[in-house]
Every structure is written in C-alpha cells, then in structure tokens.
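Operator note (shift B, R.M.): manual run for 1-acyl-sn-glycerol-3-phosphate acyltransferase requested after the automated queue skipped it. Running by hand, logging everything below so the morning shift can see what happened. Input copied straight from the record, untouched. If output looks odd, do not overwrite the archive copy; leave it for review.
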Amino acid sequence: MSKLFGYILSPIFYILFGLCLCVFHPIQWLCYKLFGYKAHKVSVDILNFFLTYCQLFLFNSISFKNEYDLPTDRPIIFAANHQSMYDIPSLIWFLRRYSAKFISKIELTKGIPSISINLRLGGGANINRKDNKQAISEIIKLGRRMKEQNWSTVIFPEGTRAKDGKLKTFQFGGIATLLKVVPNALIVPVAIENSWKIVRFGMFPLATGNALKWTVLKPIEPGVKPANEITLEIENEIRKVLDQPMAQPATL
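Run finished. Output pasted below as returned.
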C-alpha cells in the first residue's frame, strides 16, 4: 500500500518541494544582499520548515525529541547517522537556534535552487572529496567560524547515506579535525530513524506512511577521551536507538 499511495502522492510532494526551493531562491538572495547574514538565516530556516513538513503530503509523520538543555553560547558538534537527503531540512529546522552548519560536497554549490545559494552563503564547509588537503582546510575554516560565532556543525561520520537503514562504521576524522580547532565544542549525538524508508523504492515512487524521527541523545563533553573513542561512543549510542548490534573498538 505504501508503494501504491506513493505513485499517487509523490508527484504532489515533488511539486510542492520543488516550488519551495524555487520560491525561496530569490528570497535568500535578497535577504542576504539587503539585510545580511541574519536575515538570510531566517529565510533558510523558514524554507526548511516547509521542506520538512512537505513530508505530511506523503502521510509521513515528523517527530523531533530533545530532552536536553543545550547551550547556545558555545559551539556544538551534532553527530548524526545519515539515511537520506531528507535528513537535512529537518536538522536545519529543528536545530535552527544553534546555527547548525553542514559539511557538504562542493558539487552541490551549483545548479540547485535554494540549496546551492545557501551552501555558498550560509557559512558551512564545501569540500572536494578528491582533494584531501582542500577538504581539511575547509573544515578547519568552519571550525574557526564556529569558534568566532558560537556556531554549531552537523557532521555525518558515516561519510555516506545508509540506504538500507543499517548503520555504517563511523569515521572519526571530521570530528577530530573540528575538535583541534574548537576543543570546547560540546558533542551531541542525534539518531535519525526511518528516513531511508522514504526512498526505499528509489526516487519514484516515494514511500508513504513512515514515522520519521530525530532524537537528540546525551551530550558528551570533550577533552576526556580521544576523538576515536568519542566517535565510537556516538556510534553505539545511536545503534541503541536503532536497535542495531554494537560496534567494537578497532584492534591493532
């Protein structure tokens, strides 16, 4: 039934999703040019509210849970699992008060309404995966902006989407690089559930009737453990939520 309804509802979803991107593209540009970064950020937040709740037209429910009083006066590294591109609008919207930035592929900075202009103007890191030196340099620059502006960053330590929902091994390089620049950043795991199911039939039809969940887990203070141990702890906390087997420390 999910697939059958998907054939009917996916065109409606894509039209609304695409319309949001096209409408907010010039709005973002005008906000930035006329009023600066803060106005641009508000326009991006509103855009991602609409992109998030477009899921209702697929009868997908939206749930965000955060039981922790996270600070707004220090940088935060949000570390999440990654299941589909639909993870990102919701993270931007729900974490908006923390000015969360992203580490994105540089290819995305061109040709996509709203998304490309936000990546160019929003202050995140746009990396070339084929150029390790450039990627590290961009992440370091992002870390400096975090430090100066009390911004936060969302990082996907898996490195790529888990298209079947099964968590991939987390890599600690990105977290380690950021912590070298922003050693006081609070580490906050975020577990994402069921967004992979939206695209389990591919781009068309999209699946309907899924319970999409974003859950903020217990924050981790930096400085006590090395980055690889912190990353393993993040991975295992997310595995508990997803009810998947625990990962074991790497052996030499």
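Quick read of the result: The first strand starts at residue 61 and ends at 65. The chain has seven helices and seven strands.
Leaving this for review. - R.M.
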